[in-house]
Amino acid sequence: MEKEKGIIMLFKELNGRLREIKTITRPTADGRGTITFKTFMVEIPFSSDTQIDVGKLLLVETIRKGVYLILEITDYIPQHFGMINLDGTIPPELRNEIMRRIEETWNTNQAWIDVIATPVGYIMKEEDGKIEFKKGYVPPLPASKVKLFTSEALEKFIFYPEGTILGKSVNEEIDLKVNLLKAINYHIGVFAYTGSGKSNLTSLIVRRALNKYKDLKVVIIDVSMEYSILLLDELLSLNSRLVTLDRLPSNELDAGKRLLRTHVLPEELEDVRESIRKGFIKLYTEQKLRRLYIPPQGISYLSYGTLIEMIRSQIEDKYVSTSQKPLFMALLQSLDNLMRERKLTKDDIVDDTINPLLREAEEKAREAGVRDGSVIFTFLSSIKTYIQVKPSEVEEYDVESLAIEILDQDPSSPRLFVVETPNIDDARLVTHLLIENIYMRRKRAYSSLPVILFVLDEAQEFIPFETRQKDYTEQSSSSVEKLLRHGRKYHLHALISTQRLAYLNTNVLQQIHTYFVSTLPRPYDRQLISDTFGISDSLVDRTLNFDIGQWLLISFKAALKEDIPVMFKAENNVQELKENLKRYT
Ligand SMILES: Nc1ncnc2c1ncn2[C@@H]1O[C@H](COP(=O)(O)OP(=O)(O)OP(=O)(O)O)[C@@H](O)[C@H]1O
């Protein structure tokens, strides 16, 4: 009996009742269908210190005994009986008099509060003092009583007790504890208008994750030159790399000056400018800076997949004589045999193991009487020339070296990589080459450790709605899409952030299970979030009133125990950074 009482205490009687249920149907953001949301109106007695607030959860009785529907409050409006029908048809003097009286009688039984709430797709079952949460919907009983989730209930049923703290839940003031590894595992999206705190939250997630999970490595593709400052303390305390495409500084003084000049220093960090300069010098002296070499043509290797495509296009080319086509087909056949024998994949890089195959093809062409200088001879000799060209002897830190360091399982190897690529075309190319290289190596490796998280800011630049070959959007898009669709099996994950969902290839949204949403001014962007998660517009629209650093966390089987949207205020990454930088003053 005592136990039963304890559980019931987790939900507080509100003295409120469900009065109305409204249904709203609208076209989906892509215009291809419609979506319907339900809005509930709950009436509670008026009180100026009501416990009701936006983001809090309610339980309402349903048609089934012991089954409650869970609602989330999206708004609450004080109402007074005297105000109903008080409109412009009433003479002004009378209106004023009525309103004066209303003002005096808010705290009487003539007033109440209309609480607007929306179902979150969950029901709660209570049987013999046991409580169970289940996805679903059971029709609520109009006029039935309503209960309020207490902070304890939120902590007990929705947050992970051992989870990572990211901030405080709005209006409850309790720590938001999430399962960050699970969230990373199913990819994360951070969506908000510029200035809402995207980089702050991203840096916070990265530092929390790196400190909690020792098997995790993080690679940030930084187009806005922010993260080497926002995570400077982590770059200093962990083994790390600050990778740039620019010439490296020649000495430590130059390092301090140059790095400070080329990075965005947030206003709140002005007073620790000197510590940041010293931090940069330390990165230089600890040899954590690397200059990334990218070959001018971009792609530095020929894969079996590309070679197969090249042979195929010869077969399909109408200018290649019909007599040579069977020879190309035979080459394709022997290539296939070789790949089967050696268990090679399309992603593997072509090297001199294919030389005997090329020679055999040449011999066959001669036997068949193909003239010297014909397409097949030129084709074979150009492949041979390519294979013979040895990479330069100079030890360059290229995409391959970067990939090898990222995949290194040694616990003392670098764990945080900030790759600075302010030129967006370079950023796309580097992202494409890096993901492909890591993906290929991981596929062949026996281990899927370390877990790797790729962070892509301004994701719409990497996976845009429309792609083109010329600016590498096609390449980066296909690699990032591959990472989001198939990366999970290889422990390769992504955190993407953007301020405009409309410019993003929205097919990838389904692959992301955890969303952090703050103010998105465009209705289309907000509707897309509602559509993707089946969450009511009224809840997502609340983000319009969010302060900097406030977020709506929506997660599908990842960050939280139950998929109930939670509003929270994120901790301030800059504050933590400042605290840690004191060591470098
Ligand atoms: N949780 C928070 N607590 C306190 N201040 C915050 C919080 N989040 C962000 N800020 C402050 O708000 C400002 C903007 O944050 P931030 O740079 O992260 O936004 P953003 O969305 O990444 O902007 P942009 O798109 O312009 O890069 C910063 O000055 C930051 O310190």
From TrEMBL:
Catalytically driven reaction(s): Couples ATP hydrolysis with the unwinding of duplex DNA by translocating in the 3'-5' direction; ATP + H2O = ADP + phosphate + H(+)
Pfam families: DUF87
MF term (GO), any: 5'-3' DNA helicase activity
Gene3D superfamilies xref list: P-loop containing nucleotide triphosphate hydrolases
Ranges for domain Helicase HerA central: 167-358
Family: Belongs to the HerA family.
Protein name: Helicase HerA central domain-containing protein
Species of origin: Sulfolobus acidocaldarius N8
